[in-house]
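User: Structure tokens for both sequences below?

Assistant:
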Amino acid sequence: MDYLKGDEMIEMVVKLALKVKKCMMNLQAMTRAPVVRFGTAKRASELKFFMEDLNNFDTLAHVFNKSSRFGRLQKVQCAIAGMNLYMRFSCSTGDAMGMNMVSKGVQNVLDFLQADFPDMDVIGISGNFCSDKKPAAVNWIEGRGKSVVCEAIIKDEVVRNVLKTTVPALVELNMLKNLTGSAIASTPELDAQSIYA
């Protein structure tokens, strides 16, 4: 995890300059989840068990990792839907966003799997189980991408003079809008911006 130390300046959308006291970057995994199809659900489940067998992980990671100096396979999670298998590959990507890196690693694994599963039909490199830029529960539970958490102190005079409100009114607005209003609208985020989680 990376930390910013001391007083670092950041600019908010409202054009406020704040002194950031603490900042932490949480590096989560980037994901790609291809969907493959077999002639039977039994055959799809055989690949699922193969992919999730910890005895096979080192081999899969070696094949995946050959595509990049930075991309490293962390885990594979599978979900089966009839004859279709969705394989969610999670990997670290260094400082890069890494979608191309992950896609290349996934393609390496799919090519490798064809030897033991020649009846596997690759429908798409992304079957949407990776949930790229979507407010999906799998991203909240498993994590995806990178996130930054910062702590900032906004002085009362700045709230009054620049935002033209008070701290208690701002707190109430947050509760009524981002929590209660979002819940009434059945918005899954319950806050302002988690769609890119």
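Moving on to the next sequence.
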Amino acid sequence: MTCHDHYCLIILISLILPLPSVIIAVSSSSSSSLNTHDHDDHQEAVSLMKMTRKVDTTSLESTDTGVATANLRPWKGQTLLGRHKHHLIRNAHGILNIIGWGTLLPVGAIIARYLRKFPLELYDEWYPLHILCQSSGYLLGTLGWGIGLWLGNSSKQYTLKTHRILGILVFIFSTVQMLAVFVYPKIKDEFRKCWEIYHQIMGYALIALIIANIFQGATHQNHAEKWKWVYVGVLAILALIALALEVFRWIIKYRIQH
């Protein structure tokens, strides 16, 4: 057996036996049969075996984006292009829900509260505007929610149970609110006042769930702080508008009473 064949046999055994046993075998063999020139080749073979063992013992690493590596091989098609596509889909999910559920639905609630009677009393315009904001917000938010469900089902790493449960509750509540269009009682109905109270309470509870869920989802995005501050800015603008209309409403109400 030549020296070359000798080392090929050692490397083959290293894939089966533990590394210490192979090193002992190599040491005992080299002390009896290898010359000074072959000793350098022996060191190279040992280094190669150490590198092989290090690769074989690489542990599974996962990130929030769903990218995982085991033995330096990405899981199920996660190439560079696939990761970029996954990132774009997640961004689309966040943007659609922030615009749809997180912005348009609260705007619809502001319209219903402040434009229906006073201070502006847009009797003919407020209801179509309210329906437009609610329906468009519902459609965009539901689309984003569907994308989120797909992301959760396509990756074992992308589960986010709390975010998923809150999203399902938001979808149920918003669907119930949208069905109100078909069961809206007439002005002379006896239960009209009770229905309005229920509709308002349900709407405010829905908005609270939406805000909580958006911040919950933002914590799992890349650049989470930027996502959070963007939505904080959206909420600040909506809050300032609602506050200004509320103050104006109380001023008008005070003048009417006095």
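User: Anything stand out in the second?

Assistant: Helices lie at 3-14, 19-33, 36-56, 80-114, 126-154, 161-179, 192-218, 224-257.
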